[in-house]
Task: structure prediction
Amino acid sequence: MISNLTPISGTEIPQNSVESAIKITGMNKWYGAFHALKDINLTVATGDRPAVSQ
Result:
C-alpha cells in the first residue's frame, strides 16, 4: 500500500472537484506465481506530476 504520497505543489485538492488525467481502480499484476501488485487504486489529477521514490 502506498500511503506517503504528497502533492508536489503542497496543496490539497478535494478529489470530487478534480478532472482525472489517470484513474486506476483494482489493478493487479502477476509475474508467474508472484502477485506483485494487488488491488491498486490510483487517481492523478490533471496538472499533477506524480513521482515514485524509495
In short: The mean pLDDT is 79. The chain has one domain: 1-49.
